[in-house]
Design a protein that fits this description.
Distance between the termini of chain A: 37 Å
Radius of gyration of chain B: 13 Å
Number of helices of chain B: 0
Radius of gyration of chain A: 13 Å
Largest sheet of chain B: 6 strands, mixed
Order of helices and strands of chain B: EEEEEEEEEEEE
Oligomer: heterodimer
Largest interface: A-B, 24 and 19 residues
Strand content of chain B: over 45%
Structural class of chain B: mainly beta
Largest sheet of chain A: 7 strands, mixed
Strand content of chain A: over 45%
Number of strands of chain A: 11
Structural class of chain A: mainly beta
Distance between the termini of chain B: 41 Å
Helix content of chain B: under 10%
Order of helices and strands of chain A: EEEEEEEEEEE
Shape of chain A: globular
Chain lengths: 113, 114
């Protein structure tokens, strides 16, 4: 199974600033995803990170707010831009290879003040 | 539209008793079903999956789940609960478009009391 390292594990940020979250997988994977878990809620998919091309965003999420990069098959970043308190959530990176289960990083707990 | 429902926000059981966490799904085509567990301040850990084959699937930490196509259910079970099983459990189904995306249920908090 893939091991996913995500950093930072947590951060407290001022509103109006941006935070970039990094996700590193210990092996090459076909697919990488970014999910958001708002306080007391389930996980919602933000986007699929596509290697070498623009990410595919889900309804309600836009590139200007959540720019994503995936320069290779093991690494991706998610930026939360122009943050507001409503962005306070846990952000989770996920990876999938073939017809298997998806694995998750430990998450980044973001608090916007 | 595909969806997953976990009808119970919380399940309480006594240590040593059997536990069941319920999950029902709605998908087009054959479902790929998963259970994950989330401990406080941790990411999601994979427990088990159903892709095809036997309806009874065994997973990590003594958990198992039974796929029931007629009832569109995939309930998580364990014969004897441990206090350390207390956590948040998510049922998920893979998107039928084969994009790898997961659709999650709302989660069920399992509380095992000594």
């Amino acid at each position: 199974s893939a091991v996913i390292s995500q950093k930072p594990s947590r951060d407290i940020c001022q509103r109006g600033t941006s935070l970039t979250i990094q996700c590193q997988v210990d092996s090459q994977v076909t697919m990488m995803f970014w999910y958001r878990q708002q306080p007391g809620q389930s996980l919602t998919l933000i986007a699929t990170a596509n290697q070498g091309s623009e990410a595919t965003y889900e309804s309600g999420f836009v590139i200007d707010k959540f720019p994503i990069s995936r320069p290779n098959l093991t690494f991706s970043t998610l930026t939360v831009s122009n943050m507001s308190p409503e962005d306070s959530s846990i952000y989770l990176c996920s990876a999938l290879e073939g017809n298997t289960e998806a694995f998750f990083g430990q998450g980044t707990r973001l608090t916007v003040v | 539209a595909q969806s997953v429902a976990q009808p119970e926000d919380q399940v309480n059981v006594a240590e040593g008793n059997p536990l069941t966490v319920k999950c029902t799904y709605s998908v087009s085509g054959n479902p790929y079903l998963f259970w994950y567990v989330q401990y406080p301040n941790r990411g999601l850990q994979f427990l088990l999956k159903y892709i095809t084959g036997d309806n009874l699937v065994k997973g990590s930490y003594g958990f198992e789940a039974e796929f029931n196509k007629s009832q569109t259910s995939f309930h998580l079970k364990k014969p004897s609960a441990l206090v350390s099983d207390s956590a948040l459990y998510f049922c998920a189904v893979r998107d039928a478009s084969n994009t790898g995306k997961l659709i999650f249920g709302q989660g069920t908090t399992l509380q095992v009391k000594p």
